[in-house]
Amino acid sequence: MAVTPWQLGNIFGPRVAIQVKGDAAGRMIKAAKHPLLISGGNALKEMVGDKPYIEFIVELLKARSMPFIATGATYKDFVDRGLNPIKIMNAVEVVDRLRDSEWSIDGKDPHDLVVFAGLSYQYLSQLLSCIKHFATHLKTICLDRYYHPNADLSFPNLTEEQWIENLKLLLDNVKSR
Amino acid sequence: MAVTPWQLGNIFGPRVAIQVKGDAAGRMIKAAKHPLLISGGNALKEMVGDKPYIEFIVELLKARSMPFIATGATYKDFVDRGLNPIKIMNAVEVVDRLRDSEWSIDGKDPHDLVVFAGLSYQYLSQLLSCIKHFATHLKTICLDRYYHPNADLSFPNLTEEQWIENLKLLLDNVKSR
Amino acid sequence: MEKRPVRFSLKSLESAGLSARDLEIIVGGIEIPEVWEPLGPTPMPKIFMLRSWDFKLLNRYKPFYMPFCDQCCLCTYGKCDLTRGKRGSCGIDMPTQQGRIVVLACAIGTSTHTSHARHMLDRLIEKFGADTPINLGSDINVEMPNTRLVVGIKPKTLGDLSHVLSYVEEQIVQTISTTHTGQEASSLDYESKALHLGMLDHVAMEVADIAQIVAFNFPKGDPNTPLSEIGMGLIDVIKPMILLIGHNVSEGVEIIDYMRRNNLGKPGEILEVAGLCCTAHDITRYESSAKIIGPISHQIRFIRSGAADTLIIDEQCITNLSLIEAQKVKTPFIAVSDKAAYGLPDVSEWPVEKIVSSLTVGGLSGVFLPDLEKAAAVSVLTALQTAPLRQKFKVIPDIKELSTIASKCTHCGRCRRNCPIDLPVDDAVYSLRLGDSSKLAMLHDLCLGCGRCEWECPNHTPVLSLMMKAAEAKIKTEKYKIRVGRGPILDTEIREVGSPIVLGEIPGVVAFVGCANYPEGGLEVALMAREFARRRYIVTTSGCSAMSIAMYRNEEGLTPYEEFSGVFEAGGLVNVGSCVANAHISGAAIKIANIFARRPLRGNYEEIADYVLNRVGAVGVAWGAYSQKAASIATGFNRLGVPVILGPQGLKYRRMYLGRFEDKESFTVYDAKTGRRVWIGPAPEHLIISVENRKEAMVMIAKLCLRPNDTTRGRMIKLTHYIDLYKKIYGKLPEDIHLLVRSEADIPITFKDEVLSYLEKVGWKPWELPSIDPYYSENVFKKYYRGG
Amino acid sequence: MEKRPVRFSLKSLESAGLSARDLEIIVGGIEIPEVWEPLGPTPMPKIFMLRSWDFKLLNRYKPFYMPFCDQCCLCTYGKCDLTRGKRGSCGIDMPTQQGRIVVLACAIGTSTHTSHARHMLDRLIEKFGADTPINLGSDINVEMPNTRLVVGIKPKTLGDLSHVLSYVEEQIVQTISTTHTGQEASSLDYESKALHLGMLDHVAMEVADIAQIVAFNFPKGDPNTPLSEIGMGLIDVIKPMILLIGHNVSEGVEIIDYMRRNNLGKPGEILEVAGLCCTAHDITRYESSAKIIGPISHQIRFIRSGAADTLIIDEQCITNLSLIEAQKVKTPFIAVSDKAAYGLPDVSEWPVEKIVSSLTVGGLSGVFLPDLEKAAAVSVLTALQTAPLRQKFKVIPDIKELSTIASKCTHCGRCRRNCPIDLPVDDAVYSLRLGDSSKLAMLHDLCLGCGRCEWECPNHTPVLSLMMKAAEAKIKTEKYKIRVGRGPILDTEIREVGSPIVLGEIPGVVAFVGCANYPEGGLEVALMAREFARRRYIVTTSGCSAMSIAMYRNEEGLTPYEEFSGVFEAGGLVNVGSCVANAHISGAAIKIANIFARRPLRGNYEEIADYVLNRVGAVGVAWGAYSQKAASIATGFNRLGVPVILGPQGLKYRRMYLGRFEDKESFTVYDAKTGRRVWIGPAPEHLIISVENRKEAMVMIAKLCLRPNDTTRGRMIKLTHYIDLYKKIYGKLPEDIHLLVRSEADIPITFKDEVLSYLEKVGWKPWELPSIDPYYSENVFKKYYRGG
Ligand code: SF4
Ligand code: SF4
Ligand code: SF4
Ligand code: SF4
Ligand code: SF4
Ligand code: SF4
Ligand code: SF4
Ligand code: SF4
Question: What pLDDT score was predicted for residue B3?
Answer without folding.
Answer: 59
